[in-house]
Amino acid sequence: TLVLNYKKVEQMCTGAAYCQMLHMLWPEKVPLKKVKFDAKLEHAYIDNWKVLQEAFKRLHIEKDVPIQRLVKGRFQDNFEFLQWFYKFFTINDSGDHDSYDAVAQRGGAGNAPAVSRSPVKRAPVKKTVAAPAAVSNIKKSGSNQNNAEVKKLQGEVAELSAAIEGLEKERDFYFSKLRDIEVICQEKEGDELYTEFIAGIIEILYATEEGFGPAEDEVAGEPEIEDDEQEEY
Questions:
Q1: Cβ-contact 23, 105 below 8 angstroms
Q2: Which of 60, 42, 31 is nearest to 224 (CA)?
């Protein structure tokens, strides 16, 4: 529905898409004019995330936004936040977005196709009395183009949802294997014969690496905010 032509999860690091999706749910809570859809640098990304963060505050949504990690564009960080937002959006979405023109709402910014915006540019023709029939054709053409875009984007959303579901299943599969290994190690912890061997496995299991960590599964609808848990700038 956003007509942003994103190809990879990492492109969500700008924060712009999240701002507009939240705007779709609560237009009065997100100042979309402050969002930089053509941002190319990290400092501009941070500005976008701050807009989202402030909107969360106004909506009393308790969610820690790791801005400094997200703007780096790493897959793992952005995928985890995308997972959370997808669940959050699905819970709060009414599904009634037929009249929402994403390109017009953001003033044509972003990678929107020129064809889809042409009816908006010609809108002043409706004020002239010269050719009412032509005006009618423009309205029909714009409607057809919007319907085609909606169907195309619905397909893209379905593909993204399927990809996320597949990745979640793969993650859960490997996690269950690691959990089985952990249980076996815990059962053998008191056995002196395996002490060093078990300690080595446990060390590998609990090792962490920058940019990777456990996903946050909790989905907040409208809980109260705790200011000290938010990352401020």
A1: yes
A2: 60
Q: How many residues does the chain have?
A: 233
Q: Tell me the per-residue pLDDT of 1-60, one tens digit each, with 9 for 90 and over.
A: 688 888 899 999 999 999 999 998 999 999 999 999 999 999 999 999 999 999 999 999
CA 85/CA 18 separation, integer angstroms: 8
Cα separation, 64 vs 225, in Å, equals 10
CA distances from 169 to 8, 143, 173 (A): 20, 39, 6
Tell me the C-alpha distance between 202 and 131, whole Å.
78
Nearest-angstrom CA–CA distance, 51 and 42: 14
Question: Are the C-beta atoms of 50 and 19 separated by less than 8 Å?
Answer: no
Return the biggest CA–CA distance within the chain. Answer: 95
CB atoms within 10 A of CB 18: 24
Token output for 20? 């507009």
Report the distance separating Cα 207 and Cα 190, nearest Å: 22
Q: Tell if the pTM clears 0.90, that is, is over it.
A: no
Asked if residue 137 has pLDDT above 50, the reply is yes
Q: What secondary structure letter does DSSP report for 110?
A: S
Q: How far is CA 42 from CA 4, 15, 54, 128, in A?
A: 19, 11, 18, 46
Burial grade of 105 (CB within 10 A; 0-12, 13-18, 19 or more) = middle
C-alpha to C-alpha distance for 49 and 224, rounded to whole angstroms: 20
Cβ atoms < 10 Å from Cβ of 93: 12
